[in-house]
Amino acid sequence: MKLSINSIVLSIFLASFATAGPVSRGQPIANGSSKQMAPARGQTAGAAYFITNEPSGNFLITAEIGTNGQLTLRRAIDAGGIGAHGIVSPVGPDPLFSQGSVKASAAGNIVATVNSGSNTLAVFSIDPNDSTSVSMIGKPVGSGGQFPMSLAINKAGDSVCALNGGEVNGVSCFKVDKQSGLVPISNTVRSLGLNQTTPATGPAGSASHIIFSEDNTQLIASVKGVPPQPGFLAVWDIASDGSLSADFQSIAPQKGGLLPFSMTVIAGKNAILATDAGLGFDIFDFNANRNGNASTNTNNTSSSGDRSSANAIAGQSATCWSSFSPKTGNFFLTDVGTATITEVNVDNNLKGTIVKQYPQANGSATIDNDIATVAGKDFLYVLAPGATSIDVLSLDGPGKARNIQKVDIAGPAKSVGLTINANNLQGMTTFVKN
Ligand SMILES: *[C@@H]1O[C@H](CO)[C@@H](O)[C@H](O)[C@H]1NC(C)=O
Ligand SMILES: *[C@@H]1O[C@H](CO)[C@@H](O)[C@H](O)[C@H]1NC(C)=O
Ligand SMILES: *[C@@H]1O[C@H](CO)[C@@H](O)[C@H](O)[C@H]1NC(C)=O
Ligand SMILES: *[C@@H]1O[C@H](CO)[C@@H](O)[C@H](O)[C@H]1NC(C)=O
Ligand SMILES: *[C@@H]1O[C@H](CO)[C@@H](O)[C@H](O)[C@H]1NC(C)=O
Ligand SMILES: *[C@@H]1O[C@H](CO)[C@@H](O)[C@H](O)[C@H]1NC(C)=O
Ligand SMILES: *[C@@H]1O[C@H](CO)[C@@H](O)[C@H](O)[C@H]1NC(C)=O
């Protein structure tokens, strides 16, 4: 039998999603409630948040970030809706095929989450005295589509955009009203036109992640390809009234790119580093005039050409999540299949280089990650559902990450009767008070 490279890549990718199993379930927490998992330890620097995404009720879990960067799970708060798991065989971790299912903003003092099975979004205000204590503002609102799976918050922290990945797919944006919650912005419900199902079928061909461009003038969504057909980034222009251009511009990865997943802005470069589940990572140079289609906010005739690239990570299985560490100047990428963290440097010419790799526990299925700066130092928080835990790494300098803590999720969840399933856990976002 002759297998093409692409079908091998895809089958390795799919197989990598079959690692984690269910964990014990307790007596479920009543709807509408909040449970304390542990008392405050004081010395709080901020918080980390992720979701249970359970079909019986989606809960936001809040964890305290101590001044030493370490985590303590503190609370589970009803998010006012239910979770869902995308259609994939075999069923595994990363239920929403996404990054950004939960997103916090220090500027807005808010944290927002999707309720993927209810087609709603919920926003919470963060207690300025205890960032693990949050209260829902208003009620959950319709996401403007089906299977919401990723959120972006603008720089000012007063606007939230959602990516819907189901049969009715595309983007939609909301103003954050401090009294009533999320209020739809006119002319922001825009279709991606994907031939999808609700819940979404994936990971191939599914939506991945939504972000604002660095200057907040564009909204960008990533979509995975169906090999050999590569995926793309969809780019809408944002008008001054917050509305979106009627159509999006589609940007393909460089040759070799297949499944664009998470997107992390490369500061000051009008460029994005996207993880690529089928390869490693792609760099999108928005200054480039590719195929006669320049990015709409680009006006740089001195540009020496397209510095976009598709970069392989040798031995990778499914590199899907990423974040940027301002203190080390490097990007940190996680691979669910190999449970490996890859540190990448992107130079002034947008050339990406692997700095170092950090293997985590075999089978721990490292997925969503985020970075927080605490007392002048960066810490990396990685959701590892295969081990029902969170890996905490101290980023002591470029190439100098070290594991400092493994945080158990199963025990604290059981102790308060919170239903969790390793395959349903999703999201990771950090908050450090401005
Ligand atoms: C919890 O509430 C949601 C709607 O907010 C509802 O769809 C779900 O069925 C409820 N779950 C339980 C266990 O009552
Ligand atoms: C925060 O703490 C200060 C001082 O203890 C108190 O005055 C203030 O009311 C608290 N704010 C909230 C929102 O609890
Ligand atoms: C949509 O996908 C389904 C399932 O793969 C397929 O049968 C159908 O032909 C597709 N429709 C279009 C318009 O591509
Ligand atoms: C992209 O370029 C093609 C060919 O130059 C053109 O027909 C098309 O309108 C352009 N699309 C956008 C969104 O600019
Ligand atoms: C590009 O720059 C030129 C010269 O500065 C200016 O006249 C033009 O309006 C700009 N175009 C866009 C699309 O910003
Ligand atoms: C224009 O492009 C060049 C080369 O790509 C880059 O060095 C320069 O910073 C860009 N200038 C602006 C204003 O974006
Ligand atoms: C990881 O687990 C797989 C499957 O259980 C096994 O084949 C492999 O040898 C393990 N690798 C390491 C480094 O332990």
Description:
- The chain is mainly β and 434 residues long.
- The chain has helices at residues 5-15, 410-415, and strands spanning 34-36, 44-51, 59-66, 71-78, 102-105, 110-115, 120-127, 130-136, 141-142, 148-153, 159-165, 169-177, 181-184, 190-191, 207-212, 218-223, 232-237, 249-251, 260-266, 271-276, 280-285, 289-290, 293-294, 309-312, 319-325, 330-335, 340-346, 352-359, 369-374, 377-384, 389-395, 401-408, 426-432.
- The protein has one domain: YVTN repeat-like/Quinoprotein amine dehydrogenase (Methylamine Dehydrogenase, Chain H), CATH 2.130.10.
- 4% of the residues lie in helices and 45% in strands.
- A hairpin with a 7-residue loop joins strand 2 (44-51) and strand 3.
- The longest helix has 11 residues, at 5-15.
- The protein starts with a helix and ends with a strand.
- The structure holds 2-acetamido-2-deoxy-beta-D-glucopyranose (7 copies).
- One 2-acetamido-2-deoxy-beta-D-glucopyranose binds next to loops.
Helices and strands in order:
Layout: H1 5-15, E1 34-36, E2 44-51, E3 59-66, E4 71-78, E5 102-105, E6 110-115, E7 120-127, E8 130-136, E9 141-142, E10 148-153, E11 159-165, E12 169-177, E13 181-184, E14 190-191, E15 207-212, E16 218-223, E17 232-237, E18 249-251, E19 260-266, E20 271-276, E21 280-285, E22 289-290, E23 293-294, E24 309-312, E25 319-325, E26 330-335, E27 340-346, E28 352-359, E29 369-374, E30 377-384, E31 389-395, E32 401-408, H2 410-415, E33 426-432
The protein binds 2-acetamido-2-deoxy-beta-D-glucopyranose (7 copies).
